[in-house]
Specification:
The protein is mostly beta strands. The chain is 11% helix and 36% strand. The chain contains two helices and nine strands. The protein has helices spanning 7-12, 17-27; strands at residues 38-44, 47-53, 62-67, 70-75, 96-101, 106-114, 117-124, 135-137, 144-146. The chain is elongated, with a radius of gyration of 23 Å.
């Protein structure tokens, strides 16, 4: 197993403790579940889509929730009343729970279940306060004011 030294990052970056935690969590990827299979797609510059293969699950058996910077998708199948006698069982129908770490200002826009594929639409919406702005420096040096951003 490789270990990485992130101390050079801390010399010039402030407040990136969460980034180091994400790297540490990524190194433990073997604990991340592989069922059900999924894709993460970049739809446009600030829009993403998670597509998860959940064949055999009904809408009522899937729960999607967000808490702070985590998206959690859970699938729970009810217990079968009568035992079934399979000659071959190739379709998985087990319960699952999958979590995704969301970047700052990424939120879930919608979700749709169609033909056994769960599509979750995400969008990054940066607040106006956090967008770049130009600052004018007063000649006297004691007054700094924000210039209006030019419309692109």
């Amino acid at each position: 197993m490789r270990t990485y030294d992130f101390s050079p990052l801390y010399r010039s970056a402030i407040g990136f403790d969460r980034l180091a935690q994400l790297f540490d969590d990524a190194q433990r990827a073997d604990t991340q579940p592989s069922y059900p299979p999924y894709n993460i797609e970049l739809v446009s510059e600030d829009k993403y889509r998670i597509t998860m293969a959940v064949a055999g699950f009904d809408r009522s058996e899937i729960e999607i929730e967000t808490e702070r910077d985590t998206l959690k998708i859970t699938g729970r199948k009810p217990r079968e009343e009568a035992p079934r006698n399979f000659l071959h069982r190739g379709i998985a129908s087990r319960n699952f729970e999958h979590s995704f770490q969301l970047a700052d200002h990424v939120r879930v826009v919608g979700a749709k279940l169609d033909n056994g594929l769960l599509n979750i639409e995400l969008a990054r919406e940066i607040p106006e306060v956090l967008k770049p702005r130009k600052i004018a420096i007063d000649a006297a040096g004691d007054n700094v004011q924000a210039l209006e951003r030019k419309a692109a």
